[in-house]
Amino acid sequence: MTNLEFTGLVLGISGVAGCLGALTGLGGGVVVTPALTLLLGVEIRYAIGASLVSVIATSSGAAAAYVREGYSSIRIGMFLETATTLGALLGAYLATRIPTGVLGIIFGVVLLHSAWASSRGRPKDMAGKPDSLADRLRLNGSYPGEHGPQSYQVTHVKTGWGLMFGAGTVSGLLGIGSGALKVIAMDQAMHVPFKVSTTTSNFMIGVTAAASAGIYLSRGYIEPALAMPVMLGVLAGSLLGARQLVGARVRVLRWIFAGVVAVMAIQMIVNGVRGM
Amino acid sequence: MKAWGDEQLERIVSGLLIAGVSLSAAVVLLGGFGFLWQHGAQVADYHTFRGVAQQYRSSRGVVRAATSLDWRGVVQLGLLMLIITPIARVAFSLVGFAVERDGTYAALTALVLAILIYSFVAPH
After folding, report:
1. Residue B102 to residues A122, A208, B93: CA-CA distances in angstroms?
2. What is the pLDDT of residues A127-144, one digit of tens each?
3. What does the alpha-carbon distance between residue B25 and residue B23 come to, in Å, rounded to a whole number?
4. From the list A75, A81, A214, which residue is nearest B119 (CB)?
5. Does residue B1 fall inside a structural domain?
6. Domain tally for chain B?
7. Is A67:A203 a contact under the CB 8 Å cutoff?
8. Which domain holds residue B17?
9. Residues A31, A24: contact at Cβ < 8 Å?
10. Which member of A1, A81, A206 has the closest CB to residue B112?
11. How many angstroms separate the CA of residue B3 from the nearest CA in chain A?
12. Which residues from chain A sit within 8 angstroms of residue B31, using beta carbons?
């Protein structure tokens, strides 16, 4: 395959991945890495490097629109980034001490469970009582709903922070954006509305990814000729995906989200077993 | 009228992200065209990991490669700008919260920025 053909093919794959990533809050990287390695036979470290760059592009590209339209909450994002970045430091420290095969399997099982939980939606009676910490941190807000602005109350702030710390640790350990865990922490634990959860996750992923990008760059994982079509494709796809969000049905989004997470979980378990 | 609030911060953060992503995408696109113009007919091979050449691994090397019109260096410069964009967003939010006189959030943001800088500067 020539560079020209290869670039075109990668551009197409990355476009689809970016669209899916923006809609689900997962970031396009989740789909890009397996697609590049399984379909095109790209070496895993080059694929991870390119996908990490694309994660920043999806996050920032879609986040710009979401923040302006009032979906993402800057305060929820900023507050929880203290957890994810601290967790990422711990993860980077632990990375050299724990076999990644074992981690992959554990993470895969956790993801499978969360895919199942997310597809079921949130039980209505679990509305939860208002959290005084949410008031003090001004985390409660509103977002554009079908009939004008809809306000929401954030609950279980401490649990959410703890889960985010775990998500950050996983990012540092496995070199992924861990958008799935971010969405789950906000949606399931803190009772943040699903669209606010996915868009705020999108907003946060760029910061988590930027922290590891410096390391990947110095290790020589980021190949410009490969990262170029991945970044441009994912960016175009994510902008397209962001436009679809306003009219998208939350039920459909949950199913897409659950499906993508399940595929990713199985892949991680298989890789983990193979790596042991 | 409130001179400064979350809405202004949201608008500026959004603008900053758009500027960073557009600018880096433009640089990557330019470098990509240049690369394909020169090497488009060559065979693409990423099956084995050799690691990217040393000049593409540090910001100083990337800038030097880009300014000598090495097209892959131009692409890498765009990618570097993309990596810096979210960090710049955090730095700007810090200024925003400080102007808003929101001490809690200024402190939280400063902590995030410090961790980010540490993860870049700390030996790998």
Report:
1. 33, 24, 11
2. 566 788 888 888 888 888
3. 5
4. A214
5. no
6. 1
7. yes
8. 6-38+54-118
9. no
10. A81
11. 18
12. 224, 228
Q: What is the mean pLDDT of chain B?
A: 88
CA–CA distance, B17 with B120 (Å, rounded to integer): 20
pLDDT 10s digits, A168-211: 888 777 766 777 788 888 988 898 988 899 889 888 988 888 87
Task: Name the DSSP class of B54.
Answer: G
Sort out which chain B residues have CB atoms less than 8 A from A2's CB and list them: 40-44
Does residue A125 register a pLDDT over 70? no
DSSP state letter for A124: G
Position B109 in a domain: yes
> pLDDT over 90 for what percent of chain B?
57
Question: Which residues in chain B are closer than 8 Å to A67, comparing Cβ atoms?
Answer: 10, 13-14, 17
Gap between the Cα atoms of A28 and B85, Å rounded? 18
Contact B108 A79 (CB under 8 A): yes
Give yes or no for a contact between A114 and A257, defined as CB atoms under 8 angstroms apart.
no
**What pLDDT was estimated at residue B23?**
96
B35, two tokens: 């690369």
Which residue of chain A has the CA closest to B123?
A: A215
Number of A to B CB contacts under 8 A, please give it.
188
- Is A7's CB within 8 Å of B17's CB? no
Put simply, the chain A residues between 38 and 97 with a CB less than 8 A from any chain B CB are: 40-46, 53, 56-57, 59-61, 63-65, 67-68, 70, 74-75, 78-79, 81-82, 85-86, 88-89, 92
Q: Of B56, B40, B114, which is closest to residue A207 (Cα–Cα)?
A: B114
Mean pLDDT of the residues in chain A: 81
Above 80 in pLDDT, residue A28?
Answer: no
| Nearest chain A CA: its distance from B98 CA (Å) | 14
Place A224 in a pLDDT band, splitting at 50, 70 and 90: very high
What are B49-80's pLDDT values in tens digits? Answer: 888 888 898 888 899 999 998 999 999 999 99
Of A101-110, A179-188, B84-93, the one with minimum mean pLDDT is A101-110
- Residue window 122-181, chain A: list those with CB within 8 Å of chain B: 137
B77 belongs to a structural domain: yes
Give the residue, A192 or B5, on which the prediction is more confident: A192
Residue B95 lies in a domain: yes
**Is residue A270 within 8 angstroms of chain B, CB to CB?**
no
